[in-house]
Structures are given as structure tokens and as C-alpha cells.
Amino acid sequence: MQQFGSEKDRTTWAMHYAIVKAAIKQPQKTHEATVKGKTSKGIPYSYTYKYADLADVDKAIMDAIRKTEKDGKPLLSYFFEVDNAEEGVSAETVIIDATNGFMIKTSKVWFKNYNVGDAQKTASLVSYAKRYSLSAAFGIASEDDDDAQNAQQQEAPEVNDAALEVIWNAYINHDPVANNWIHKSHDAVTANKILKLSEDFKKQQAKAKSKRIKELKAKHDQAQKEIKKQGQKSDDEVIKNLVDHDDSDKDEHADQQDLFDQIVGD
Fold first, then answer.
1. With b meaning 16 or more CB within 10 Å and e meaning fewer, what string describes 73-95?
2. Phi-psi region of 246 (alpha: psi -120 to 50; beta: other; left: phi over 0)
3. What's the whole-number average pLDDT of the chain?
4. Best exposed site among 53, 140, 159, 225 by fewest CB in 10 Å?
5. What confidence tier does 232 reach under pLDDT thresholds 50, 70, 90?
6. CA-closest candidate to residue 11, choices 136, 185, 177
7. If DSSP codes are grouped into helix, strand and coil, which group holds residue 37?
8. Measured between alpha carbons, how far is 259 from 172 in angstroms, rounded to an integer?
9. End-to-end CA distance of the chain
């Protein structure tokens, strides 16, 4: 995906995207198509599959956008960039954060046009490219899949790893929007990833604390040496001078609650 905007705006975009995506209900596959042809060995084949068309996919996403409006305003919007060339048709979905204008463009999908000159069939191909791009952008299964693919779609996380990392970094830096998002309910995959981030963060904090204890012990030992060298000063005065010049033990995340215990749930 290509992105356009600042890192702060990207954080907001990622959270709003996650909120909207979590609210999407998979559209019903009410349409049916039959594919016929011959294999390279001349053997005829035919199969039928069900699908949700572009209007169905668009409605599912727009319903989620309306459902997640804040103060009557949408969090996201989107549009398509389509290229209808002689070689084929391509489409990209551009997802925009409606609150700050930050946008991310999905990877381009391209399909060869075997019916150049046929306006109706070309229009159908453009529609298919849009549906394919939009479905991929928001994690919608718009066509029949086998069981394994269906399971993969159902277990897909709300956000990818890169977006989740952006949200997490905002969270540990006390961003209120990120805090609200982290502590709401999530699908199992996303919740487990957040729990893993929480565990890693807790380990990092414990490691930093252990390191700080060693540093303080070293300073205490240094103080004892200074006391021996400067017998005329009291122990309290020497130690006070050393500690007063060191504030590196301040915890930049002092107001964080116990993430490990409360990270999953409302």
C-alpha cells in the first residue's frame, strides 16, 4: 500500500480503518455465474459459483462506515483509480481518513481484457476489477472459496501487523484514541496479537527496571568511594549530590496500568 500524509495522521487512519473493518458484515452471495471453457488438452469444463457483486460489497462497507460515524461524521471514505488500457484493466482502492485527509492506496489489481472493443464486456471487467480491489482492501470474501480459504477469511485480523504496531506505539505514548481502541473487544487473532505486544512490553519494562537497579547500585558503590576520598563530607551529602544529578530512573510510562491483565476485553 502507498500512503500519503504524516505519521500521526497514519496512526489515526489505522485506528479508524480497524474500527470500520470490524463493523463490516460479510455480504450475502446472492448472484451466480457459470464458467465454461476447454483445458489446454481440449477437455471441456463447466462450473458455477456464487458471489456478491460490487453493489453488495460497497453496501456492506458503507453500512459499516455509517455505523461507526462519530458525531454524525464518517471516519473513512474511499474511491477508485481505474486504468482501462488496450492491454487490460486495472483498479486501485484509495481509502481516506475523513477526519484528516490521510489516504492509503491499495496495491493495483490488473486483468487482461480479451474483449477489447466490446464496451459492455469491458465495463463488466472494470466492475469486476473494482469489486476485487475493494474486497481485498476491506477483507471481504465476495466469491465462493474452499473451506480453507473461508476459514482464513473468518480468522483474518482487524488490522495487519504494520497498522497494529502504529496503534500500539500511539497507545504506549498515551494517545487517548489508541487507548480506547486497544481496550475494546477484538477478534481472536487481533486480541492475541495485542496480548503478545503487551507481554513483550512488560518484559521490556522488567528488563529496563533490572538495568536501572544495576545502575543505581553502581552509583551507590561510586558514592561509597567518594565518601572515602572526601572524609570531610557526610555520607548523606555525597549520596545526595550523586542522586540529584541523575534523573534517568524516571519512568516515561509511569501512568500505564497493568497491560497484561486488562489488554483483552471491553
1. ebbbebeeeeeeeeeebbbbbbb
2. beta
3. 77
4. 225
5. low
6. 177
7. strand
8. 10
9. 31
Q: How many CB atoms lie within 10 A of CB 35?
A: 9
What is the rounded distance in angstroms from the CA atom of residue 33 to the CA atom of residue 51? 8
Amino acid at residue number 22: A
Distance CA 160, CA 48 (A): 32
Residue 72, all three cell numbers: 454524525
Written as one letter, the residue type at 27 is: P
Rounded to an integer, what distance in angstroms lies between the CA atom of residue 196 and that of residue 204?
12
Query: CA separation (Å) from 104 to 50, 60, 76?
Result: 30, 20, 11
Q: Where are the alpha helices (DSSP H) in the chain?
A: 7-22, 54-67, 119-138, 147-154, 161-172, 176-182, 188-229, 235-244, 259-262
Residue 240 burial (CB count, 10 A): 13
Could you give the count of Cα atoms lying within 13 Å of 241 in the half-sphere of its Cβ?
Answer: 11
User: How do residues 81-108 score in pLDDT, each as one tens digit?
Assistant: 999 988 899 999 999 999 999 999 887 8
Q: Which amino acid is at 146?
A: D
pTM above 0.90, yes or no: no
